[in-house]
Amino acid sequence: GAGVSQTPSNKVTEKGKYVELRCDPISGHTALYWYRQSLGQGPEFLIYFQGTGAADDSGLPNDRFFAVRPEGSVSTLKIQRTERGDSAVYLCASSPTTFSDTQYFGPGTRLTVL
Amino acid sequence: GESVGLHLPTLSVQEGDNSIINCAYSNSASDYFIWYKQESGKGPQFIIDIRSNMDKRQGQRVTVLLNKTVKHLSLQIAATQPGDSAVYFCAENIDAGGTSYGKLTFGQGTILTVHP
Prior knowledge:
heterodimer; A: seven-stranded mixed β-sheet
């Protein structure tokens, strides 16, 4: 079946610009997670949703980062006034529920801020 | 503080050998541990998991061992194949109050290279 998909696969933007990254979770999965992975590092948690609500956004680095999941399926991670330090691979994962711990990851979006 | 780390950042083996990848964790409240494999340009792929009430779990060609006394986790891959070459991450999840919050904390990763 279809896995987690993310678009775009690559995004190059200029410092100060606004970007949106999209995640389509596995159909029927109620829990959705965003992670950020810098080169040579493991993924770092940003935020997760249970349904439409953000259950834990403690990993968002600052108020330039925001994520939504209005209908409990697709999620968008939004970054305002991008900085060069935001360059990373942004990974999305989903799981059937938060009580089912296996998280299935998408291929990620590589964001490069020039 | 909470952290998950790896003893060996790189591991090089010959095809057919067994591989062992190690991971240390510091949070005794960790309840659930997962190993992921990540190939270049792809997202992490689930390999195997283990809960804190177990000390060993086996899958297809893979075994995870958990030693809670010394807070150590290992992944054993039998008869390693070139297709196993990737970065391997351990991750931990803290189950607070019986409700897993799903927030994973990853280690830095070990690069496994399998030579034909």
